Amino acid sequence: MLSWFIALAVFVWILQTAFGFWQFKKFSNHLRQLRSEGRVAIGRARGGFSSGVIVLLVIDNYCRIIKGEIMEGRTVFAGFKPFDHLNGLTLFELSDDLCKGLKFNFQQSVAVISAKKDYDDYQTIQTGK
Predict the structure, then answer these.
(1) Which of 35, 52, 101, 122 has the smallest count of CB within 10 Å of its CB?
(2) 8 Å CB contact between 59 and 65
(3) pLDDT of 41-70, one tens digit each?
(4) DSSP string of 116-129?
(5) End-to-end alpha-carbon separation of the chain, Å?
(6) Distance separating alpha carbons of residues 61 and 59, to the nearest angstrom
(7) What's the whole-model pTM score?
């Protein structure tokens, strides 16, 4: 009986690992496609008890958002959907107040602000300031 349980646990672990790799490959391919359209700011909010959120914002040379996509979900089968609420704005305009005004849920707001912060951090490293 114990060996059956161990075999099942190993099988589930292998299945989880395979699905994780599949999801990462799907994400990488999607990100590569978006990068062909412009620079991409990536924001994320970890799930925990609620579903996790990843926001991809394609920006032009002036940090104006050209296109946004969002992935929300608890499973590896979650996919990206259009997220056009921020199109036309610049990354510098993103704030908690703006997210509240656009009626984003908490996780979406965290992901959007995370995209701005991560891009700011990246620019700081690139410029050496």
Answers:
(1) 101
(2) yes
(3) 999 998 777 778 999 999 998 989 999 999
(4) HHHHHHHHHHHHT-
(5) 61
(6) 7
(7) 0.82
